[in-house]
Design goal:
66% helix; mainly alpha; 6 helices; single chain; two-stranded antiparallel ribbon
Length: 140
């Protein structure tokens, strides 16, 4: 549900927001919604921050580590009986507390993280298919 809200920004904040909106070709509404949504998630998960990737997409990442989806993908890669925080920590080289933080974020934001994993796997499949097509050209 969308709820309209009147927000008054301090003059310095308003000027920076207007400049950001212009540089990034976004609306004030989308910038403020993204900022508030990310801030709320970071309040619920203090070890999480958000990073912008090459595509322009913003993704959840550990403050002191990789993007959350990589931990979730590593979790999925382990056999069900061998999935544990310590197993992921051992294979990733991350502290258990970081792995636990990523898993907690994933648990509360399944659609977001599962979507990133799905897009990443699709991109890998496409890259492999393109590489195989090039290899066929070279062999001919």
């Amino acid at each position: 549900m969308v709820a309209p809200m009147n927000i008054r920004f301090a003059s310095g904040v308003e000027e920076h927001l207007a400049s950001f909106v212009k540089r990034h070709a976004q609306t004030k509404n989308s910038v403020v919604n993204t900022a508030v949504a990310e801030w709320l998630k970071m309040q619920a998960h203090p070890r999480i921050r958000f990073v912008q990737v090459e595509t322009g997409e913003r993704r959840a990442a550990l403050i002191d580590g990789p993007q959350v989806w990589t931990i979730a993908d590593a979790w999925n890669a382990h056999d069900e009986g061998k999935r544990s925080v310590s197993a992921i920590a051992d294979t990733s080289g991350l502290p258990a507390v970081a792995v636990d933080a990523a898993l907690a974020y994933w648990a509360e934001n399944r659609d977001e993280i599962d979507g990133v994993i799905e897009r990443h796997h699709l991109a890998q499949d496409e890259a492999l298919a393109a590489w195989e097509a090039r290899r066929k050209l070279q062999a001919a």
